[in-house]
Here is the input.
Amino acid sequence: MDKFIEAIINADKEAREQVENAKAYHTSIQKEASTNRNEIYDQFMKKEELIIEARKKEMHDALDNQSNDSIQTYESSLISLQSLYEENKDQWVSHIVDRCLHE
Here is the structure.
C-alpha cells in the first residue's frame, strides 16, 4: 500500500511539474507573440510605406507627363494662332478699317 501511495504522490508531483512547465511555456509564448506582434506590425508598416511611396512616384510621373502634354498642346496652339495671325493680320485690319469708315 505504501508503494501505491508513493506512486500516487510521484504521479501528482509529475503532473504539477507538467502544469508548471505548461504555464511557463504559455507565458513565454505570450511574450514572444507580443514581441512578434510589434515586429510584424513594423514590417507591415514598412511594406505599406514602400507601396505608398511607389504610388506617389507613379502619380507624380503621370502628372508630369500630363503637364508636359498640356504644355506641348499649348505651345502647338500658340504657334498655330501666331501663324494664323501673321497670315491674316493685314486683311483683318483692313476689314476693320473699312467697316469703321463705311458705316
In short: The mean pLDDT is 91. The radius of gyration is 43 Å. The first helix runs from residue 2 to 102.
